[in-house]
Amino acid sequence: MKTPQAYKALRWFASLSMMVLVLFATTGCTKNMIVLDPKGPIAEQQRDLMLISTILCAVVIVPVLILTAVIVWRYRDKKGRKAKYKPNWEHSTKLEIIWWGIPIIIIIALGVITVKGTYALEPSKPLKSDVKPITIQVTSLDWKWLFQYPEQGIASVNYVQFPENVPIRFEITADSPMNSFWIPQLGGQMYAMSGMAMTLHLQADEKGEYMGSGANFTGREFAKMYFTANATSQEAFDQWVSEVKTSSPALTLDGYKELAKPAASDVRMFSAFPKGLFEMTVTKYASSHNHGLSWKDINKIQLEE
User: Fold this and answer.
1) How confident is the model at residue 295 (pLDDT cuts 50, 70, 90)?
2) In 132-284, which ranges are continuous DSSP H helix?
3) HSE (CB half, 13 Å, CA atoms) of 229?
4) 227 forms bridges with which residues in the sheet?
5) 88-102 burial, b for 16+ CB within 10 Å, e for fewer?
6) Are 213 and 227 within 8 A, CB to CB?
């Protein structure tokens, strides 16, 4: 026959197991955690920063949780208990140094690591490379992503392609409610906001198709606002650009206005787009807050038209 203590232990174990299962289910641990599978230098540094921060926090959290369980079990009320009763005990210098000193040291270490990581991972900072970066202009629409290649003169919807080992300068804005541009395996997200031109530098270190999505709730069809980021060889990229130029229609200004209407979209390609379309989208909301793309740059492009 089981004792009351056995029942309590069984309930405690069942509750702990349920919490662990819920934690795994809600954090996606049962699926492929692509954030921890980086394919570019920025994502690698961000993963390392997350792991280091988690380990440093665990240095405090894990012992506290273990000690909590040990103390609850060790000092539980039971028959025959003969522990000393010290109602006036209230201070121990040694213990105070331990449980205040260790967390303070860890917080300082976390602060130093975070500051260094924040500076190193500043999204508008160009990546160090001997290869010329490729510029891709990104516009968040309801509920789709428009990618423009100003150097190649082509555009695409819900699909972006670029060469591996080539730095990418994403210039990001929105012609819709604020969203967040995110390719988890290449780097952290960057907000896309109307009237603003944000800059994000990323790079893919190997070929592959990576998931990209909007990371902000933007209305009815926001769940369909995902895209494929395809890293290929330089030859495959050049061939794709050539195919788009020869087999796809051009995006006109009227076509863009139609595209910007709230609706989900399949993958689409365009052999050309109106010159200065990205800059017109930024300036039409008359904002003076640009990050990485100055008004001087925008006005210069418009004057060249």
Assistant:
1) very low
2) 234-247, 253-259, 277-283
3) 26
4) 212
5) eeeeeeeeeeeeeee
6) yes
Q: What is the pTM of this model?
A: 0.78
How far apart, in whole angstroms, are the C-alpha atoms of residue 33 and residue 24?
11
Q: C-alpha angle with apex 182: 214 to 239, nearest 5 degrees? A: 105
136 and 237 in contact (C-beta within 8 Å)? no
Q: Which helix (H) or strand (E) holds 290?
A: none
CA distance 177 to 192: 9
Position 304 scores a pLDDT of 44
Which pair of structure tokens corresponds to residue 130?
A: 């001997």
pLDDT in tens, 195-235: 899 999 999 999 999 999 998 888 888 888 999 999 999 99
Q: Taking the chain, what is the end-to-end CA distance rounded to the nearest angstrom?
A: 88
pLDDT of residue 4: 57
On the 0-12 / 13-18 / 19+ scale of CB atoms within 10 A, 113 is: middle
On the question of pLDDT at 264 being above 70, the answer is: yes
Within 136-265, residue ranges assigned H as helices are: 234-247, 253-259
Q: Tokens for 88?
A: 């006036």
Residue 215 per-residue DSSP state: -
Find out whether 200 and 172 touch, Cβ atoms under 8 Å: yes
Q: How many CB atoms lie within 10 A of CB 173?
A: 27
Cα 282 to Cα 193: distance, rounded to the nearest angstrom:
9
Q: Which amino acid is at 162?
A: F
